[in-house]
Each structure stands twice: as C-alpha cells, then as structure tokens.
Amino acid sequence: MDTAEIIRRAAAASITIATAESCTGGMIAAALTDIPGSSAVVDRGFVTYSNAAKMQMLGVRAETLDAVGAVSEEVAAEMAAGALNNAGVTLAVSVTGIAGPGGSEFKPEGRVCFGLARTGREPLTETVDFGAIGRDKVRAATRDHALELLAGAISRIERETGS
C-alpha cells in the first residue's frame, strides 16, 4: 500500500492519524501530508527530539527514560499512547532510534523502536535494526516502515469493521 493508498483507505474508513517522531524529525507526517486530501486523515505530528519534549508533549515518563533510555520499545509505546490520547485520533505511530552516526555496544547505529497505538487497544511495539547504513538511509527506512505499520493497522480495522 503506497502513501496515497493509506490516505485514501483511511479517509474511506474514517480513520484519523497522528505521528510521534524522534529520529525522523517529522518525515512520516511530511510523507502523509504530501498527499492531497490528507487533511481528512492526518490530525497532527509531534516532533519530540529531546527527552524533555517526549515528556512534555507526549507524557513519556521520566522513570521510563531513566530505566531504559529513549531508544526503547517502552518509550516508543508511551510516545504512541501519548500521541493517540493527546490528538484524539484512531491511530498513532511513533519512532525513536539512532539514525547515526554513532551508537553504543547496547544500542547500535540504525536501531529504531516503533510504537503503534490504536483506540481501545494496548500499544504494539517492535524494534528494527537497519544497520549502519547511514543517517539518511536509516531515517528513510524508518519512515517507510512506519508507513507500513499504519497500512497494516488500516487493513486490520477495515477487516474488523467490514469497511
């Protein structure tokens, strides 16, 4: 499903979307809003690059950040849940990762944690290691994977509602 199809199918099913982005800095929201008619679907995007922004704008808990760090599925889940609750949308996707250069023994360059929150459900999370392929490629791969997560969620909602 390409981005135009995401917008078309979400609009047809009355699904609204918010994004919560760290390492992509708004690239997911930009990809969605590049499509004419996206205003029927996209409510807002939160660019929360710092830990302070994650806490202030999305309600990520300081305890979570202290315990597991910003690049973690726990923070991705809290980011997605915060975006969902603050925007009052149907779906919210979040990303937090290390685009590079850099990284550590425990959190290598190219590691990105994703969150997907849906009204009435617990957030889903996953981690993808894209590898040290370069900052631009990690960010683009992250954007594309987040769009795939949204496409999958839209398909599930369509099946469940028969829309």
Helix and strand topology:
Elements: H1 3-12, E1 17-21, H2 27-33, E2 42-47, H3 51-58, H4 62-68, H5 73-87, E3 91-97, E4 111-118, E5 124-129, H6 135-161
Helix pairs in contact: 1-6
Outline the structure in words.
This protein is 45% helix and 20% strand. It has helices at 3-12, 27-33, 51-58, 62-68, 73-87, 135-161; strands at 17-21, 42-47, 91-97, 111-118, 124-129. The chain has a five-stranded mixed sheet, sandwiched between helices. Strand 4 and strand 5 (124-129) form a beta hairpin. Helix 1 (3-12) runs parallel beside helix 6 (135-161). The chain is globular, with a radius of gyration of 15 Å.
Shape: globular
In sequence order, what are the helices and strands, one letter per element? HEHEHHHEEEH
Q: How many β-strand runs?
A: 5
Number of helices: 6
- Mean pLDDT equals 97
Strand order of the largest sheet: 2-1-3-4-5
Query: What structural class is derived from the secondary structure elements?
Result: alpha/beta
Uncertain runs are none
**Helical residues, percent:** 40-55%
What is the beta-strand fraction?
15-25%
- Biggest beta sheet summary: 5 strands, mixed
What is the radius of gyration computed over CA atoms, rounded to a whole number of angstroms?
A: 15 Å
Alpha carbon gap, first and last residue: 16 Å
